[in-house]
Amino acid sequence: MSIKRLRISKKNDDDSPGWLTTFNDLITLLMVFFVLIFTMGSVDTQMFKDFQYGLQTGLGILDEGSQVSIAVKDSRQDPDKIELLAQAEGEVEAVDEQEVVDEQESASPIDEALKDLTDEPGIDVRYSNQGAHITFEDFLLFDFGKADINPGGLAFLDKMATLIHKIPHSVRVEGHTDNVPIHTARFPSNWELSIARAVSVVKYIAGSGKINPQRLSAVGYGETRPLVANDSAVHRTRNRRVEIVIATEG
Predict the structure, then answer these.
(1) Model confidence over 124-149: pLDDT tens digits?
(2) Would you put residue 24 in left (φ > 0), alpha (ψ -120 to 50) or beta?
(3) 236 vs 60, more confident
(4) Domain spans, the chain
(5) pLDDT tens-digit profile of 195-230?
(6) 205-213 long-range contacts, Cβ below 8 Å, gap at least 24?
(7) Cα angle at 170 between 166 and 175, to 5 degrees?
(8) Residue 189, Cβ neighbours under 10 Å: how many?
(9) Is the pTM of this model over 0.90?
(10) Nearest of 45, 47, 50 to residue 72 by alpha carbon
């Protein structure tokens, strides 16, 4: 009798539906899922990622090709740290903006004033440890061997007077010549010619009424400070010049 019952029980197990096993697996996975959801506040991020992979793999048995995506946010991030990071980023942005403003405000008034002269023909602008040097080739201001400012040169000097009026520095006007000797009643040598040209420029700028004469000075160097060798007509032309030095140093 017992043997017969054993055979019947075995037969019932073999006849159970095949989907029941899969259904049991699903129920088990769902239960694990809800347990993990309940405890997610204390679950490590990496652990949750491992669970995501296992869940995707398990559910892939039921519906091939389908996957479950779970977004995990690390709840361990300290809110105070987040606020501090936001404040730090805001301070960095504020510093960057202030640096831009400081750079704009620190732009040299000389640079602003001279930017319109750099493209003028016959005018050269350079800087040294003494300050800004604005060089006029002599033909812009004077006729050859003369110290009287020609009509065309007056327009340039009007611009210079306006420029100098905008900045507070002292101004020195330098006269320079080439090495070709000059012997006239007015100019026995290049020394006198260079000094007379510098004085003519100073007097005109001071006479504009815009500049305090105490800020101005004149000096003549003759042929002693050439820019280039006096070995050609082109080079001698460069050496015949008037330099206006805006003394930002010393």
Answers:
(1) 888 888 888 989 888 889 998 999 99
(2) alpha
(3) 236
(4) 2-62, 77-106, 109-247
(5) 999 999 999 999 887 788 999 999 999 999 999 999
(6) 205/157, 205/160, 205/161, 205/164, 205/171, 205/173, 208/158, 208/161, 210/161, 210/162, 210/164, 210/165, 211/161, 211/164, 211/165, 211/171
(7) 110
(8) 14
(9) no
(10) 45
Question: Is the distance from CB of 169 to CB of 127 less than 8 angstroms?
Answer: no
Q: What is 109-247's CATH superfamily?
A: OmpA-like domain (3.30.1330.60)
Overall average pLDDT of the 28-50 stretch: 70
50 vs 30: CA distance, rounded Å: 16
Torsion sign, CA atoms 32, 30, 55, 23 = positive
The confidence score (pLDDT) of residue 85 equals: 62
pLDDT digits (tens, 9 = 90+) for 76-103: 555 555 565 666 566 656 555 555 445 4
H or E element in which residue 200 lies: helix 190-207
What is the rounded distance in angstroms from the CA atom of residue 163 to the CA atom of residue 242? 16
| pLDDT the model gives residue 80 | 58
Mean of per-residue pLDDT scores for the chain: 76
Q: Beta 123-128 vs 131-137: how paired, if at all?
A: antiparallel
